[in-house]
Design a protein that fits this description.
Blueprint: H1 2-6, H2 12-37, H3 41-50, H4 52-61, H5 65-83, H6 91-113, H7 116-124, H8 132-151, H9 153-161, H10 163-168, H11 173-194, H12 200-212, H13 218-243, H14 247-276
Helix pairs in contact: 2-8, 2-11, 2-12, 2-13, 3-6, 3-11, 3-12, 4-5, 4-6, 5-6, 5-11, 8-11, 12-13, 12-14, 13-14
């Protein structure tokens, strides 16, 4: 048993990939509760696509992928802010315009300068290929996101439950909302390096969706989201190593298996309670 756990850890690429994955899972798990509670699942999917042009440009210029993705994500967030609420446009309209355009731009640039192999790497991640510098960047961004959530937890909590009350006590729900978008953007950048931009949505949404089937208290949902995220990374990573599977896809499938198990358990518990009444 110990050999099963320790053998992969003798390789540097496995250590770096596992560490980067755990940091990503921790960060996504912390934000996942707020994303699901606020009904922002679409923003996670859209943000995952919006970072593509930044990643491609970073590849072309030889910059770290994380920096290119972060720049693209932040530009997209400010683009949403500039469009939403003006000329009668709602936020979902601004999201659709900005992110579909950004993704198309990324595909266009990629078709001119990248091979299909590069496309696979960018869309589905390469957690086994993260460098020591990538791990440092992931750790720094992750620490900043988690620290921001910890410091402004009350503001996020109040605006999530009752925006009207938050306005009455002097908070700006719009400011808090776009601050959360920036945190989501930064977290998306981390996940894009590990599981890839296509699979980011799963780490953003599925942990909290799974937790909400088991508990209804937001702090507990966040705690369980972190646990489910980290377990999926560790189990998925070991499964991908021993069975020669794609790491990002395996991690997401493990997380999906947790959701299915929680869904079945929740339904079974509901039927049992009704049967006793």
């Amino acid at each position: 048993m110990f050999d099963f756990l320790l053998e992969p850890l003798t390789y540097g690429f496995f250590q770096r990939g596992l560490l980067a994955g755990i940091i990503t899972a921790l960060t996504c798990g912390v934000l996942s509760g707020f994303i699901v509670w606020r009904g922002m699942a679409f923003i996670g999917d859209a943000m995952a696509h919006a970072v593509l042009p930044g990643i491609v440009i970073a590849v072309v210029l030889g910059f770290p992928l994380l920096l290119g993705a972060l720049a693209a994500a932040l530009i997209s967030v400010f683009g949403i802010g500039a469009i939403a609420g003006r000329n009668g446009f709602k936020e979902d309209t601004a999201i659709g315009v900005i992110f579909s355009g950004a993704f198309a731009l990324g595909i266009l640039i990629m078709s001119r300068v990248s091979s299909m192999k590069d496309l696979t790497h960018i869309l589905f991640g390469n957690i086994l290929g993260v460098s020591p510098f990538d791990v440092i960047l992931v750790a720094v961004v992750g620490a900043l996101v988690i620290a921001a959530v910890f410091v402004f937890y009350k503001e996020l909590l109040v605006t999530s439950f009752d925006p009207t009350h938050s306005t009455a006590i002097g908070l700006s729900p719009r400011f808090v909302h776009y601050s959360l978008l920036i945190l989501i953007a930064a977290t998306t950048v981390i996940a894009s390096q590990t599981v890839g931009v296509v699979l980011v949505l799963a780490l953003m949404v599925t942990p909290a969706a799974t937790s909400s089937l088991l508990v209804k208290n937001l702090p507990l949902i966040i705690l369980l989201s972190v646990i489910f995220s980290m377990l999926s990374v560790v189990l998925g990573f070991y499964l991908s190593y021993y069975f020669d599977l794609a790491s990002g896809a395996t991690i997401v499938l493990v997380l999906t298996a947790f959701f299915i198990a929680a869904f079945l358990f929740s339904n079974l518990r509901r039927v049992t309670v009704r049967g006793k009444q």
